[in-house]
Amino acid sequence: MMIIMKSNATPQQVEMVIAAVREAGLNVHLSQGVEATVIGAIGETHSIPTERFESLDGVDTVQRITQPYKLASRQFHPENTVLPIDGFTVGGEEIA
Question: What is the CATH code for 2-91?
Answer without folding.
Answer: 3.30.70.1140
